[in-house]
Amino acid sequence: MPNPRLAVRALILHQNRLLMVNAWPEGKSDLWCAPGGGVERGQSLPDNLKRELHEECGLDIAVGAPCLVNEFHDAKGSFHQVDIYFHATITGGQIDPAWRDPEGVVTARRFVTEAELRRLRFKPDSLPELAFGEAQALRAFYDPLEPIVL
């Protein structure tokens, strides 16, 4: 079995709307999630998240505190992923329907209200509470990437 895949995701509330993406090429699924993606070795989690948000949405962001660790897997297969969610704010760019993810994974992106989110198919299940509920005020500490000291 391969090791779990590590990914980072952004929880971005803008004008009381949550940024969501459909990360299924060619409309394969109607499942929506927060933007983000796989972590590359040697980069901090926030740096990975900044890269992913620019690739997927054309946005520049400031990364805040982590707010959720979500783990999921395919019980019938070998896929296992750990997502670390961070609060983030937009510092540049805007959602443009003409933007293309260079990897072709994210095919749609949009901001949704809580009511709109609840009408979508989305993961993780805790997303409405995390984004719009009392849990949105919770913060965790994050100690950025540090070199090993001998």
Provide a descriptive summary of the structure in words.
The protein has 150 residues and is an alpha+beta fold. It has a single domain, classed as Alpha-Beta Complex (Nucleoside Triphosphate Pyrophosphohydrolase). Helix content is 17%, strand content 37%. The chain contains 3 helices and 9 strands. It has helices at 45-57, 114-119, 127-132; strands at 5-11, 13-14, 17-22, 31-33, 36-38, 60-73, 80-92, 108-112, 121-122. Strands 2, 3, 4, 8 and 9 form a 5-stranded mixed beta sheet that branches. A 4-stranded mixed beta sheet has the order 5-1-7-6, with helices on one face. Strand 2 and strand 3 (17-22) form a beta hairpin. The model has no long low-confidence stretch (mean pLDDT 88).
Structure in a nutshell:
This protein has 150 residues and is of the alpha+beta class.
Write the layout of secondary structure elements.
Elements lengths: L4 E7 L1 E2 L2 E6 L8 E3 L2 E3 L6 H13 L2 E14 L6 E13 L15 E5 L1 H6 L1 E2 L4 H6 L18
Parallel strand pairs: 1-7, 4-9
Antiparallel strand pairs: 1-5, 2-3, 3-4, 3-8, 6-7
CATH topology: Nucleoside Triphosphate Pyrophosphohydrolase
Rg, please?
15 Å
CATH class, anyone? Answer: Alpha Beta
Low-confidence stretches: none
**What is the mean pLDDT?**
88
* Main beta sheet strand tally, sense and closure: 5 strands, mixed
Query: Termini, distance in Å?
Result: 32 Å
Structural class: alpha+beta
The CATH level-2 architecture is identified as Alpha-Beta Complex
Basic shape: globular
CATH H-tier superfamily: Nucleoside Triphosphate Pyrophosphohydrolase
SSE succession: EEEEEHEEEHEH
Number of domains: 1
User: What is the count of helical runs?
Assistant: 3
Residues in β-strands, percent: 35-45%
Q: Work out the helicity level.
A: 10-25%
Number of strands: 9
